[in-house]
UniProtKB/TrEMBL annotation:
The keyword Magnesium does not apply. GO terms for biological process: equilibrioception; sensory perception of sound. This is Clarin 1. The chain crosses the membrane at residues 97-123, 135-155, 189-209. InterPro entries: Clarin. It comes from Hymenochirus boettgeri (Congo dwarf clawed frog).
Amino acid sequence: MPKLQKKVLFCMAGILSFACALGIAGALGKQLWIKGTILCKTGAMLVNATGEELQKFIGEIQYGLFYGERVKQCGLGGRPTSFSFFPDLLNVIPASIHVSIIIFSTMFIVFALAGTGFFMFNAFGNPYEALHGPVGLYLWSFVSCSCGCLILILFSSEVKMHSLSEKIANYKEGAFTFKTHTEHFQTSYWIILFCTAVHVFNVFLIRFAGFHFPFSKSKELDTTTGAIDLMY
């Protein structure tokens, strides 16, 4: 492939990687990860609410990785409150999983920025083989993609398997019991998914630029090359 086309592809991949870093940083601090509704089970059972009457006992909840808001409905109007995960909810939620999500999100930003630097260096510099060249591009793209996958898996597990919304809704509630009615992932979650897919796309851009996947090259060595070989 001509050198100019390689530069264009690497610049495109670098810009995408940088955009992902910005998107993840923005998503990390927002409370747009989960939005749903919570049912006041105790109140609904006391009056045997059904149909439209049941709507009086359905509140709302929305949260991210650091804070959120909830509106509790127990038949007498909504009770809006805000909450913070640190330090209030650490004894209620699976703290190890939640902290791991934040750590991997931070690492995702760092690796995306590192990938941006490597792509631009390969586009405008004189990269060497090994980690400065295509192997480095594959490495950072793979590590970034892995971080994104771990974030999605851990957060989905925390929400669905550990009933995160119910634990938040029932925090410091002695008289009423709340149950998750509906919940769905919001913008920040889909940004992480999109950024993960972008790094997978970057892998194919590297391959399209003419560089084979690591460990897929022939074992035959070129005896005419020196100790340090330039990529191009």
